[in-house]
Amino acid sequence: MSGTNEIVGTTVGTTVGVAVGRHDEPARDELLRVEGLTHVYGDGRNGRVGRDGRGATPAVDHISFSIARGETLGLVGESGCGKSTTGRMIVKLLSITSGRVLFDGRDISGIRRRADVAAFRRQVQMIFQDPYASLDPHATVRDIIAEGIDNFHLVSSGRGGRGARAERAERVAELLDMVGLRPEHADRYPHEFSGGQRQRIGIARALAVDPSFVVCDEPISALDVSIQAQIVNLLQDLQRRRGLTYLFIAHDLSMVRYISDRIAVMWKGRIVETGPADEVYGNPLHPYTRSLISAVPEPDPRAERARRRVEFDAEAFAAGLGGGGLAVPLREVDPGHWAAIA
Amino acid sequence: MSEITEDSGNVVETGGIASGAAASGTAASAGGDERPVRVSVRDLHVTFRKDNLDVHAVRGVSFDLRAGETLALVGESGSGKSVTCRSLMRLLPRNARLDGDVRFDGRDVLALDRKALRDLRGNRIAMIFQDPMTSLDPTMIIGRQITETIRLHTSVGRREARERAIRLLDQVGISDAARRFHQYPHEFSGGQRQRIVIAIALACHPDVLIADEPTTALDVTMQAQILDLLADIQRDTGTAIILVTHDLGVVAKAADRVAVMYAGRIVEYGTADEIFYNPRHPYTWGLLGSTPTLDTERGRLRPIPGVPPNLAAIPAGDAFAPRNAYALAVDERYEPPFFAVSPTHAAATWLLDPRAPQVEPPAEIRWRWRIWHELQHLEGAA
């Protein structure tokens, strides 16, 4: 395993830019770059040192990708594939066992100082799956949304006292309006809202500090169909208006295809395929991607009657690779479309 | 639209004229279907008394379920689909009031005594839920959970029950069943647990299987396997299935007929093809418009605005009207009756009243209607 991983690691760092442009040129206007990112649960070292945990399977195993400014990268895969772990490492909610995260050209994987982490958090925010669990039930919507504003002193202190309070209220009202809620909602508590409205509150909170990059971790999975579409439209609208960049993590493949410019498919802690969304769906190259797409039912009975599901046989696939294990490096099969196949 | 309001005296009558299966507002099964009706529900109402308020969870639901078919109940949370299902087994909390007529093989379910009810639940109707752990005992090996069900409802001995349980596990795709018989629920994955629940549900050969969001918590490949498993079981045993889901992809894959629910009522019902390719109710349009297919282009998703109504204070007229871009003036005052579209298809929308204006549905619905015409054409040619 380690031998192959070495290869993947080096390949990734040098040639496999897995991404926007061709591998031989730097990604246009790259905002986020992840190199050889690895997480081993229970590594016990708070992530500073290299791979540890002999015998432990890494939840995320040497993955690399990059995201251009204003772009949405969809990260898909089944539960336990490491997609949420990846998102959490990027926002520094989880330690990095090894590898690097470069944000706007700066390696943030090693930053420690509180001021540095805070500065990073102003740039990078996260939206969670369960808006209810992530909102303080005892705080008003105003205080929830203003938390970031307060932490980062985003209200000009020069005005002081009443002036600052008014500015803060104004800012909260603006944010509520932006996510489609009403100003009077500011005085209410999370339990007074529906799931969709709570997710709007979560979005307002994330955007309060005016970030440039947002990790959306299954943001619509817990919502009803009509509300899912509302939230997805809101996210797209905000992206256009504010030039946001998204990492959109989800298991709902149709919605991911819909919202993403590019997609990365994860399987057992690795990216097995990545490319433009339409390419990955229209012409899946990796047998795992094929099996995944062939299992997504569509709201179209005629398509369902014609559907032929293909199962991914990991053992047969590995055997076909000739004893190298499953850790095949990604290779560019079509321009911008990479797959971990022989 | 003003015609209808002015002439409101005739409105309800007009609705009543709607012919065939639709006249009674019943999601009855296909005309000419000879399969026996297993479950028949007429004008079901369920009201919960909560904090001195009446929450109208189900407001006049009617449908038939025949042997061997799968009926999908589709709708958002709070639409009444789960409460409807639980009513069939009378699995409702104490503060629920149940009115209407529910029959299982002709027997009045609402009049059953405790013993008869237990017999019905164990032997005739089985239910599986979204979270398999709702049905599994974490402290008991799974084999015993199956054999207990078998022995509770049949008179077979221990050894025979054990053999049957292993066969069932094998049948639902648990490999190495004889060994895994002795394992606890936590030793299985989510998908395997749902398979075990299905094995328990099948243990007494139910005539009706109610599957309430059975795959919502599962990954897509596991979901596909479970849906295939249910289809196989249905083919082999003729079990009738009620599938509750909000996922229109799952409906398209698994359902023969579909009833779309909103705010405690069925608003449209028909065969799966009728609902997906010839939808007539703006709420059905909204659900379809909210769900991307793998071909939906960017910017083409059309959510339904707003949120479902508070079931303790349902507005007068059509409960969907406040969210309905196609609402007519009449919707604010009169609840629409069912209008028949075909002997198997009806929708409760004033848009189908002959006096209503012709409206152009959203582009993705027009695309579906075109497929419908193609299908009709093909059928005509055949």
From TrEMBL, chain A:
SMART domains: AAA. InterPro entries: AAA+_ATPase, ABC_transp_ATP-bind, ABC_transporter-like_ATP-bd, ABC_transporter-like_CS, Oligopep_ABC_C, P-loop_NTPase. GO terms for biological process: peptide transport; transmembrane transport. The keyword ATP-binding applies. Residues 32-293 form the ABC transporter domain. Signal peptide: none annotated. Gene3D superfamilies: P-loop containing nucleotide triphosphate hydrolases (3.40.50.300). Transmembrane segments: none annotated. Keywords: ATP-binding, Nucleotide-binding, Transport. The keyword ATP-binding applies. PROSITE patterns: ABC_TRANSPORTER_1, ABC_TRANSPORTER_2. Coiled coil: none annotated. One of its GO terms (molecular function) is ATP hydrolysis activity. Belongs to the ABC transporter superfamily. PANTHER family: D,D-DIPEPTIDE TRANSPORT ATP-BINDING PROTEIN DDPF-RELATED, TRANSPORT ATP-BINDING PROTEIN. This is ATP-binding cassette domain-containing protein. It comes from Bifidobacterium ramosum.
From TrEMBL, chain B:
Keywords: ATP-binding, Cell membrane, Membrane, Nucleotide-binding, Transport. It comes from the Bacteria. GO terms for cellular component: plasma membrane. It is found in: Cell membrane. One of its GO terms (molecular function) is ATP hydrolysis activity. GO terms for biological process: peptide transport. Coiled coil: none annotated. It is a peripheral membrane protein. PROSITE patterns: ABC_TRANSPORTER_1 (PS00211), ABC_TRANSPORTER_2 (PS50893). Pfam families: ABC_tran, oligo_HPY. SUPFAM superfamilies: P-loop containing nucleoside triphosphate hydrolases. Residues 41-288 form the ABC transporter domain. Its main location: membrane. Gene3D superfamilies: P-loop containing nucleotide triphosphate hydrolases. Belongs to the ABC transporter superfamily. NCBIfam families: oligo_HPY. This is ATP-binding cassette domain-containing protein.
